[in-house]
Structures are given as structure tokens and as C-alpha cells.
Amino acid sequence: ANAIMAAYWLIALLLQEPDGLSPLVQELDDARLKWQKAHPSTPIGPAFFDQTCSSSKSLPLLSSAIQEVLRYTSSTFSPRHVTAPVALGGYQLKPGDRIVCVTRHVHIDEEIHPQADKLDIRRYLEVPRVIKDGKPVANHTMPFGGGISMCEGR
Q: What does DSSP say about strands 135-136 and 77-81: parallel, antiparallel, or unpaired?
């Protein structure tokens, strides 16, 4: 269900950029040509997709672009039940309390994502080492929420 929306936003947003889809088309064309050179008598089919598209290392720009589009467009809410007393953000929470975690705020935080209001398909070409308030930020991109299941639909 999420893949369709990610693909839609990837295309819709990139068509508004000066280079459009050209950088992604070039990467895909290069991957196809490389595969065809290694497999000259094999038509493009499942083997190509299994080998080329199953790893983010094969298509780094496409992988980065998808991650960035998810960061840029997603707005998830992750409802949780408090199971043990805890202090969170100055609030005392007790068992049975319900909270809603809004991950969108992390995605638009300028300290975590410089120029967060700009779409940058190259943002995730290298693994970001995000620091905020002197501490590493482990979950700096959570388009589908967090926790055990990561996503309500999973």
C-alpha cells in the first residue's frame, strides 16, 4: 500500500525539479546496460530485477530518492499504550495512558535534516550521522512509525 504512494510522490515531485526524472532514468539505464553486458543472451525479466533491484547498493540514487520522498511527504502517527511509569518530555505517564507519537516533527527538524523543506534525492547517498543536542539521533527517518511492528499495516 505504501509503495504506490511513494512511487507517485517520487514521480510527481521529481517532475517539478529542473532535472526531472533524468538522474534516476540514467541510473536505471546504466544498471540495465551493465546487466545486459554480463548476460548478453538473457532477456530482461525476473533475474534482472532479483539481481539489480533487490539491493539498495545496486541503485543507490533510486534508494536515496525513495528514502527522501518518504521523509519529505510522510506524516505518520504511532499510537502507544504506556505499560510502566515513565517521565517523557516533562510529563509523568502512568500505565494505561495512551500517547500518540508524531514522527513528522523529526522529518522536518532543520537540526536533523538540513534544509528539511527542500527535496534532495541525494540526501541518503551516504548514511547520515545525525547529532542533535550533542546526542546521536538513531531514528531520524521514520516514515512508517516505530516500535516492534514499525508500521500499523505490517
A: unpaired
Q: Which three cell numbers stand for residue 98?
A: 495512551
**Cell digits for 13?**
515531485
The pLDDT-based confidence of 132 (bands split at 50, 70, 90) is confident
Bridge partners (DSSP) of residue 136 are: 131
Per-residue pLDDT band at 37 (split at 50, 70, 90) = very high
Q: Is it the case that residue 24 has pLDDT exceeding 90?
A: yes
Please state, in angstroms and rounded to a whole number, the distance separating the CA atoms of residues 109 and 64. Answer: 19
Q: Measure CA of the first residue to CA of the last residue in the chain; give whole Å.
A: 10
What are the CA-CA distances from residue 9 to residues 15, 35, 36, 67, 96 (Å)? 10, 28, 30, 11, 38
The answer, yes or no, to whether residue 32 has pLDDT greater than 80, is yes
Single out the residue of 31, 12, 30, 8 nearest to residue 20, CA to CA: 12
Instruction: Return d(Cα 120, Cα 65) in angstroms, integer.
Output: 8
Sign of the Cα pseudo-torsion (90, 95, 98, 103, in order): positive
Give me Rg for the CA atoms of the chain. 19
